[in-house]
Amino acid sequence: MSGWDPLRLFIFVSAQNPQLFGFTRDQTGGNLPPNYGPWLSSAGFTMQGTISAGAGEISNAIESAIASRGYYLSRADGRAW
Q1: Taking the model in full, what pTM does it have?
Q2: Mean pLDDT of the chain
Q3: Which of 10, 24, 48, 55 could form a disulfide with 71 if both were Cys (CB 3.0 to 4.6 A apart)?
């Protein structure tokens, strides 16, 4: 996470598929894909470097997805959606 200030991220779970999680900087989750919604708020945290989150680890891939799309989708096992 080179050069980034700490980010406040919010985690949401898909009501359609409880094995699908969305990570976003949007506290409301309004930018998450509506076809997997509704999205239910799960948690919030500040990302500083690499941190563990559930079964997976926040990585440069997640950082890049949030920077380009505004969100990242992950399965409960930590694999990208």
Answers
A1: 0.74
A2: 79
A3: 24
CB-CB contact of 22 with 44 (8 Å)? no
The domain spanning residue 42 has which CATH number? 3.10.510
pLDDT surpasses 60 at 81: yes
Q: Phi and psi of 66, rounded to 5°?
A: -65, -40
Q: What is the dihedral of CA 64, 10, 31, 81, to 10 degrees?
A: 60
CA dist 24 and 8 (Å) reads 9
pLDDT at 18: 94
Over range 43-51, report the average pLDDT.
60
Tally of domains within the chain? 1
In a domain, 2, yes or no: no
**Is residue 42 domain-resident?**
yes
Residue 45 structural domain: 7-75
What is the rounded distance in angstroms from the CA atom of residue 78 to the CA atom of residue 80? Answer: 7
